[in-house]
Amino acid sequence: MEKKVFLLDAFALVFRAYYALIRSPRLTSKGKNTNAQFGFTNALIDLINKQKPSHMAVCFDTAAPTERHTDFADYKANRQETPEDILEAVPDIKRIIQAFNIPIVALDGYEADDVIGTLSKQAEKAGYDVYMVTPDKDYGQLVSERIKIYKPAYGGNDAEVLGPAEVCAKWNIQDVSQVIDMLGMMGDAVDNIPGIPGVGEKTAAKFLQEYGSLENTLANADTIKGAMGEKVRKGKELAILSKKLATIITSVPVEFHEEDFKLKEWNKDELKNIFSELEFRTLGKRLLGEEFTPPPSSRSVVEKEMPQGVQTDLFGNIISSAPIP
Asked: How many domains does the chain have?
């Protein structure tokens, strides 16, 4: 069997699933919003059916602070409160993952990025092809010939697989190790990483082409002329901090256990229970067959029935996507 492991960034996919259907929310007969549960489940099934991984795990953030919050009190402080519907969806999503007999990995003090980074490196050493399932560009720093980003289909666009060449082309850099140098200089608004004030993506890429790294750029700050040179000189401390904040940790105390991460038979009884509670009628019948008998409901929302083998994004739009070679 081909050794292929998919590691999912849970909350990145949960948020995508929820907002994909925000304009036409899925509600149960009791008024429960199931956007996140439905979208995440479809994305999970699509990965299993189309990409046929041999191993899989889903990685979650926890509520505990991390070293990044200690280093920089404003880390991710710009983010809005998580919608109540998403908070309520998380226990359902974890039950769904467990019913598929897929391990959930999370560790206080570390983000899902760090857990995935660590597991990716371990799986690579064990001879696996690794796919980090996330829309997050920061994961580019982890990419190698055997570790790739799998960016799920979204909004009618096909899924993307990003290896070293694709990551370097997207960032206009020479090596994936420079992703954190880029983020150290330009910052990351999503995570409230400051970078050097006044330095954007194009300028950061230009500095890396000339100096090779953030540290070498700062060492040559006195030779950078004009207002930009002044910005770099004033922003040295922020740049060093920002690079540290953007660096994904690959030494988290978690282990890639091949047998634990191997895909197994689903717990169909538990899936029946969950799909019945969430009123996933069409999805339940498609996955579980005639043995799935959902309870009657007055719900007005109708699930789209797609032809066998057709892939959709989280909106339910039909897209074309081939398995990874």
From this structure: 2
